[in-house]
């Protein structure tokens, strides 16, 4: 049995996680896979009641699970979203989940905003460095609230951090038959930090001579993603640029409601989360798209060694799209629970 820690989160996070877990239950009913689910109530409600985001010792406790499933975090009752930052960054940094993996895969042609694009044209993966860069919260504010205020955030890049995410991208490309790797930086402007990325990309790439490697400035890569997404197989980039480029990628596949992600440390416990926000205005209205959360469960079960289950989940989502069983963001009329139930039932039918 695989032991899964589930943090439903806030807002629509709770609603879509329920449907994702129903998918997991349907897989159990039609296979020999078994999952032990433990629901953890970390989120805004607990934070507002206790002032605690993650209990003391929780990061170590997570190491006792096979995976973590995280719903969206964020609540207007916590204006600075302190609880969301503490939980998400606490887990990412505490478990050293240095790989953020975002598949950009179009499952139905009707979802792509680009003209005349097929499912074969939008099918690549983005690897985002997940523990360094501009998100390490190194910096400060001087003379706050005055006309002379100064605000500084440092972009931290280490040789170790850059090399390991680049190597992961090349190894992924090799494992899938020699796909090409594109790396995005701004070494023309950030010549120290991103000069390191450019040098290491060249050095690591030479260890994989069968892999075509291409260097882009991040703005040029964004343009190329829109102009010719079919030219990409694997993209690897820094924390900040990865955050931006993957949301653009989500638009190509139908929006954030279709986007799944994994936060990985090969050899350690990993965390899986749909990438849309908690969307407080949508919460409680039964309109949130659960497909991103369901596809995230697919990534999780594949990571846990059940690739066939992941393929079945994706096939069930595709079937729902073809049948028009979709939420309003995709032009449908079904509710969150109706879409989730339809997909789960499709899985049960085999």
Keywords for this entry:
350 residues; alpha/beta; ten-stranded mixed beta sheet; two-stranded antiparallel ribbon; globular
- Contiguous low-pLDDT stretches (5 residues minimum) are none
Structural class, by secondary structure, is alpha/beta
Please tell me how large the radius of gyration is: 20 Å
User: What share of residues are in beta strands?
Assistant: 15-25%
What would the principal axes of the Cα set say about the shape? globular
Put simply, the count of helices is: 11
Please report the total strand number as a whole number: 12
Strand order of the largest sheet: 2-1-3-12-11-4-5-10-8-9
Order of helices and strands: EHEHHEHEEEEHEHEHEHEEHHH
Outline the biggest β-sheet: 10 strands, mixed
Bin the helical content: 40-55%
Write the layout of secondary structure elements.
Elements: E1 2-7, H1 12-29, E2 35-39, H2 44-50, H3 58-62, E3 67-70, H4 82-94, E4 99-105, E5 123-129, E6 139-142, E7 150-153, H5 159-175, E8 181-185, H6 193-205, E9 213-217, H7 218-227, E10 234-237, H8 239-252, E11 262-264, E12 270-272, H9 291-303, H10 307-323, H11 336-349
Parallel strand pairs: 1-2, 1-3, 3-12, 5-10, 8-9, 8-10
Antiparallel strand pairs: 4-5, 4-11, 6-7, 11-12
Helix pairs in contact: 1-9, 1-11, 5-6, 7-8, 9-10, 10-11
Structure explained in plain terms:
The protein is an alpha/beta fold and 350 residues long. Helix content is 40%, strand content 16%. The protein contains eleven helices and twelve strands. It has helices at 12-29, 44-50, 58-62, 82-94, 159-175, 193-205, 218-227, 239-252, 291-303, 307-323, 336-349; strands at 2-7, 35-39, 67-70, 99-105, 123-129, 139-142, 150-153, 181-185, 213-217, 234-237, 262-264, 270-272. The strands form two sheets. A ten-stranded mixed beta sheet has the order 2-1-3-12-11-4-5-10-8-9, sandwiched between helices. Strands 6-7 form a two-stranded antiparallel ribbon. Helix 1 crosses helix 9. The relative contact order is 0.18. The mean pLDDT is 96.
């Amino acid at each position: 049995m695989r032991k899964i820690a589930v943090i439903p989160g806030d807002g629509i996070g709770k609603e879509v996680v329920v449907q994702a877990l129903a998918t997991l239950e349907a897989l159990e009913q039609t296979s020999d896979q078994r999952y032990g689910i433990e629901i953890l109530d970390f989120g805004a409600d607990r934070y507002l009641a206790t002032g605690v985001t993650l209990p003391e010792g929780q990061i170590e406790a997570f190491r006792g699970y096979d995976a973590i499933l995280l719903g969206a975090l964020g609540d207007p009752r916590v204006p600075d979203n302190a609880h969301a930052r503490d939980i998400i960054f606490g887990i990412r940094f505490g478990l050293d989940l240095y790989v953020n993996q975002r598949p950009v895969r179009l499952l139905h042609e009707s979802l792509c905003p680009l003209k005349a694009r097929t499912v074969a044209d939008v099918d690549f993966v983005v690897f985002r460095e997940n523990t360094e860069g501009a998100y390490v919260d190194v910096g400060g504010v001087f003379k706050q609230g005055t006309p002379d205020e100064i605000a500084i955030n440092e972009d931290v890049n280490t040789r170790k951090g850059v090399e390991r995410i680049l190597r992961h991208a090349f190894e992924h490309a090799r494992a899938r038959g020699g796909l090409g790797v594109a790396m995005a930086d701004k070494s023309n402007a950030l010549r120290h930090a991103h000069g390191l990325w450019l040098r290491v990309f060249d050095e690591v790439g030479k260890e994989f001579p069968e892999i075509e490697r291409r260097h882009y400035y991040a703005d040029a890569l964004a343009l190329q993603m829109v102009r010719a997404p079919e030219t990409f197989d694997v993209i690897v980039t820094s924390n900040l640029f990865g955050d931006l480029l993957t949301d653009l990628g989500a638009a190509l596949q139908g929006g954030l409601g279709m986007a799944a992600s994994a936060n990985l440390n090969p050899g350690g416990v990993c965390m899986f989360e749909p990438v849309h926000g908690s969307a407080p205005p949508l919460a409680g209205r039964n309109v949130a798209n659960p497909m991103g959360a369901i596809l995230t469960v697919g990534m999780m079960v594949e990571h846990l060694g059940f690739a066939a289950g992941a393929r079945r989940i994706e096939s069930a989502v595709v079937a729902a799209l073809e049948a028009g069983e979709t939420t309003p963001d995709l032009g449908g009329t079904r509710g969150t629970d109706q879409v989730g139930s339809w997909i789960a039932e499709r899985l049960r039918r085999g």
